[in-house]
Amino acid sequence: MSSIIQLLPDHVANQIAAGEVVQRPASVVKELLENAVDANATDIKLIIKDAGKSLVQVIDNGKGMSVTDARLCFERHATSKIRHAEDLFSLHTKGFRGEALASIAAIAHVEMKTKQEQDELGTQIVIEGSKFVSQESAVLPQGTSFAIKNLFFNIPARRNFLKSDTVEYRHVIDEFQRVALAHPNIHFTFYHNGSEMYNLPISTLRQRVVNVFSGKTNEKLVPVQEETEIVTIQGFVSKPEFAKKSRGEQFFFVNDRFIKSGYLHHAVMAAYDGILKDGAQPSYFLYLTVPANSIDINIHPTKTEIKFDDESALYAILRASIKHSLGQFNIAPVLDFERDANLDTPYHYKDLEGITPTIQVDRSFNPFSDDKETKSYSSSGSGSASSYSGSSYKKPAATANWESLYVGLKQEPDLAIESAEISFESEEVTASLFNDEEVEQSVQNVYQIHKKYIVSPIKSGMVIVDQQRAHQRVLYEQFLTNMTVHQASSQQLLFPLELYFSAGEMELIDELKFSLINTGFVFEETNANHVVISGIPVNVTESEVSIVLEQLLSDLQEGIPENSFSQNDSIAKSMAKSLAVKTGTSLTIKEQENLVNGLFACKDPNVSPFQKPTFITMRVEDIDKKFAI
After folding, report:
1. Where is this region: Disordered (predicted)?
2. Which of 50, 294, 318, 533 has a 20 to 30 Å separation from 90 between CA atoms?
């Protein structure tokens, strides 16, 4: 009987390993950038084309590799980071598995150029699908350059699973930002399709955050600083008023390695307890430094999850330090709610002694005297005399003959007008635009229950409408119609709005710009990090513009549909969700009637845009059954 178990060929094993290491172009970007950081580079360039599908190139000025190392780095489990199993618990570098370059070389065309400082010539190696094509000496600058071309060229099924260029580009930006934020001591530049997207010089931590996210990020940041035996925390959190609905700008770094931790995120949210709106997410950039032997990095293939020895203590310290920073900078309320800051003593008065005021009395003053002469008196205080002047009290003029004021004002008989002769045009004034019968009828037609449901009687019983879902349906069909027939109305703003976004969000807005114009938005200017809006849809208020766009960007994080109808549908759903009346909103009788009438005028009133029922009906027979004995 022949053997069933066989050893896999190396190129097959490498392709299987590549499935774990390389999921998309962003995975290649992450591995190459981390290798450049580990090579002690001070200047790193990232160049991509077609969101990394055609080219991912990373050029650094690090220490480079020798001829032997250049060939060995593409072998599986070849690494310079660890020697023994114990080294896994004292890691200070990014990569350590030794599988990244072998996996990348198995599914792409790779060209590597490297040279060490002491060598006269460098080494150039070309690999295609794990096969060495050439290796030769070349004149090169110090450092290493990796060019990864035609990703997944030999695995077309994997290439077909890649998303659109916009989505893949956003993932590349995410990986670039994570590495750039962790190392402000390195100069990073990023080019996409020949255009410079980022140029981040060596700077402080705060400047790096501002340079990456641009806009008005600086005024949003509150510094956090804490040092204990367990952990050292530094970084920034955002002020509550700048919180967003999406969880985009949230970064944890442990020993300069980006991680994801729901447990630590909960600690941050606990620090904001009571000062954030429902559903709002604060931005934070927190850098934790812990002993290398107190964490385990090797628990997840992507190495973005870490196991801590004492998570509960870390949770408490992180929560307390953020809460302290928010209180220290008057972001969170202080304990003494009754204290009036206006009553605090100014600093330049704290060492001064109080001066007792002197009281001086004019003993000769008589308020009932008729004397109009000016009197002077002297007061002796500390041996010197001071002269004062004043007028005595003057009695008011007599008004006994007040009747003489009206002499000659008696009315002549012929000018008198009898009030009985005056006639007025009768005019009935009502308190509202509707008569009492209409008001009474409208009161009886609809009722609002718990600021959530609208109840209206119908011939067979009654209908109960969910006000939020119903309004979503009404707005959804309005927006979709406007975008389809291109007849959206805009209201011009007196002062244009200037809104700032990150580079990834600006890419989405540029792609959605035409559809947003069809909804009623007017873009006066679009730059690399902000937009200027001079017109908005008629059913959107100025204060809701940023909320609508943030919700839209959050809903489309996983990608924009390729065809225009699906794109319009996604935008209409997102805007309807943002602008619909929420549960807990009190509506007037007229608003309730308009909402119910608008719902049943829709093409599909039965469900919301998210396929949830908008109303239910109860027949009189159903109600009778509830009372049956």
Report:
1. 370-393
2. 318
DSSP letters, 117-143, are: TT-SSEEEEEEETTEEEEEEEE---SE
Q: For the range 193-200, what are the long-range contacts, defined as Cβ-Cβ under 8 Å and sequence gap of 24 or more?
A: 193/48, 193/49, 193/50, 197/173, 197/503, 198/503
Q: What share of the chain is helix, strand, coil (3-state, %, to 5)?
A: 35, 25, 40
> Taking CA 146 as the corner, what is the angle to CA 144 and CA 152, rounded to the nearest 5 degrees?
165
The tally of CA atoms less than 13 A away on the side-chain side of residue 75 is: 9
Give 297-323 as a DSSP string: -TTSTTS---EES-HHHHHHHHHHHHH
Which residue segments constitute the domains of the chain, with CATH numbers given? Answer: 10-200 (3.30.565.10), 205-328 (3.30.230.10), 447-617 (3.30.1370.100)
The residues that bridge with 391 in the sheet, in sequence order, are none
Burial of 136 (0-12, 13-18, 19+ CB in 10 A): exposed
Which residues, 6+ apart, have CB-to-CB distance to 325 below 8 Å? 222, 223, 224, 225, 237, 331
Q: Count of alpha carbons within 13 Å of 267, Cβ hemisphere only?
A: 18
Cα 345 from chain centroid (whole Å): 39
Exposure of 536 in the CB half-sphere (CA atoms within 13 A): 20
Q: Residue 393: its pLDDT value, please?
A: 46
Q: Which residues pair with 237 in a beta bridge?
A: 222, 284
Contact in structure between 257 and 182 (CB atoms under 8 Å): yes
Question: Residue 396 has what pLDDT?
Answer: 52
SS3 per residue for 535-596:
EEECCCCHHHHHHHHHHHHHHCCCCCCCCHHHHHHHHHHHHHHHHCCCCCCCCCHHHHHHHH
Query: Is the pTM higher than 0.90?
Result: no
- The Cα 559–Cα 610 span in angstroms is 18
The residues of the chain scoring below 70 in pLDDT are 1-2, 10-20, 77-99, 215, 298-303, 330-351, 370-444, 486-487, 557-564, 629
DSSP structural state of residue 230:
S
Supply 39's token pair: 């090579």
CA distance linking residue 569 with residue 573, whole number of Å: 6
